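Translate structure to sequence.
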């Protein structure tokens, strides 16, 4: 039951980010910078996850 709840919470957080945060950052005229920062953050977290496990 716990893994299902955690998966649901992660999905809800991803929905909030995709639905609210990303469009808002693009609306202020910083679309390219915010997209680069999003990709760089994803790559950094992937590297850290791989290195620390």
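Result:
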């Amino acid at each position: 039951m716990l893994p299902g709840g955690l998966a649901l919470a992660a999905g809800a957080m991803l929905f909030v980010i995709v639905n609210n945060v990303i469009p808002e950052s693009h609306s202020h005229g910083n679309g390219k910078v915010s997209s680069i920062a999003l990709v760089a953050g994803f790559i950094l977290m992937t590297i850290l996850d791989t290195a620390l496990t």
